[in-house]
What we know:
- The complex is a heterodimer.
- In chain A, helix 3 runs parallel beside helix 8, helix 5 (about 105-125) runs antiparallel to helix 14 (about 260-270) and helix 10 (about 185-215) runs antiparallel to helix 11.
- Chain A is globular, with a radius of gyration of 20 Å.
- Chain A has 15 helices and no strands.
- Chain A is about 70% helix and about 0% strand.
- Chain A is an all-alpha fold.
- Mean pLDDT of chain A is about 85; it is low at about 1-35.
- The longest helix of chain A is centred in the middle third of the chain and has 31 residues, at about 185-215.
- By secondary structure, chain B is mainly α.
- Chain B has one domain (about 1-265).
- In chain B, helix 2 packs antiparallel against helix 3, helix 3 (about 60-70) packs across helix 6 (about 105-135) and helix 4 (about 85-95) packs parallel to helix 7.
- The interface between A and B is large, with 49 and 44 residues.
Amino acid sequence: MAESAESAESAESAASAESVRHAPPAEPWEWAGPQAEKTGPCARLLQGLRAYGLICAMWIRSTMAYRASFAMTLFGNFAATALDFVAILLMFSQVDRLGGYQLPEVALLYGSAGTAFGIADLLLGSMDRLGRRVRDGTLDTLLVRPVPVLAQVAADRFALRRLGRITQGLLILGYALWVLDVDWSPLKVLMVPLMLLSGSVIFGAVFVCGAAFQFLAQDAAEVQNSFTYGGVTLLQYPPTVFGKDLLRSVTCVVPLAFVSWLPALYILGRDYPLGLPGWLAFTPPLVALACCALAGLAWRAGLTSYRSTGS
Amino acid sequence: MTGSVRLYGAVARGGFRRHATYRTATAAGVFTNTVFGLILAYTYLALWDQRPGLGGYDQAQALTYVWLGQSLHMVMAVLGGGFEDELIERIRSGDVAIDLYRPADLQLWWLAGDLGRGLFHLLARGLVPMLFGALVFDLALPADPLRWLAFLGAALLGLLVSFAIRFLVALSAFWLMDGAGVAQMAWLTGIFFSGMLLPLNVFPGLLGEIARLLPWASLMQLPADVLLGERTGAALLSGYAFQLGWAAALLTLGRLLQTVATRRVVVQGG
């Protein structure tokens, strides 16, 4: 069900490519001029964020030119993700517990992972188009503009309809928090927003790493889906369901367990199956920072290894 | 007669070879199918641990169902990836006019190409995930070659139904121009009612009864039941009849719609 979202997107992208011609063009080189003079990491970061915001705003304007189409795709995005939860509901129509977890507990895992992934998908999800840009040579256009390439690639075809996924995740999360019988402490309350924030940063880093990988393996874009869409599918279920080897690899190799499992299990007062120390539940922000650093390095390595096909 | 057999045979071979060109993409797809199979297998294990014999399957059968789902995923093009995006684009751009003046039938032309694609995806994207699943888990794969043959028959009929549905989806572009919305609705319905998400015999009550009567049941649930030995003898024949019935009905509808649609085509000279 993962690649699903993308296949509908590709059909729709033809329409949005048309629409951008009608929108007033935001021309990066005009506003990038003076800032490009400034150097230093902070100035560059600000410049990148500013560029990202402007390109996103342009895509939103062009999307809004076709409001009915936008409403339909927004609903489609919502419904496609909701199907995953319908499957879980159908499972719970047959059983009371899955891997020892009841429905509200699974809903907490589902909602937190879904929302965190949804935020990353909205902000950076378009990056998996990079392989196509490398293949058809349009990446060169991005390289000659005085704007960070990462910002341009991340904002490329910014798809506001992905709000549908966030909405769906938040609804399930809200339901879980409403019905869960948890002994709330200030720390546990704080854990909820912290989990969403660091979780989306971790998933964002996975998106950037996946894009960096596409410089090398242009046609292999789909491998990335295993870690993004596959990752969020994995996190929707209780960790007790999965084998120890799989758990070890998503804790130590690709740190997806830090997105929602470790913090959510702390809220639920349950133990993580690998018998890890309890304080790990508070480390997701650190893990997220480390992931960002790694993703940055991977991106830089990917970008410098890029050789244009030239024509 | 022999001429048209050779023509559509060539189109089918073309469909096979066209998809066979993208080797890295195929390998990446196999990897993704395997990862999703692994995740789903564990959730099914937990479900059948809790309710042994759910839906008439034992645990090994349920696991086989998971890996079969990953193998048939691309064959049935449940999430797109078949010919429909291309045909929609040709209808939108007007290139379909070229297809219409070819000395070949529109429906048969695309059907032949899609059968070639389906065969490639069965071999290239179906075998490896199934082998991986059989290595890691205890699967209920039959030893009887006849049952495999019966399964291939059911899978072929399933592909026919899948094509017929997607052909209708694509033709809707003659009226709507932008087929994205219909395509999206079609794959949402398809993923749910084919049984790719969860076997249809696990669906509760009336929902399950309705789901098992819809055409999408031909794509995944029926071939799986044949392979798992849930359909033999008379039940096998009634299963084939169910698939053939839907295939015939939907293909006829497609043909009617095609006749109406082609009258709408206006070729702009220039």
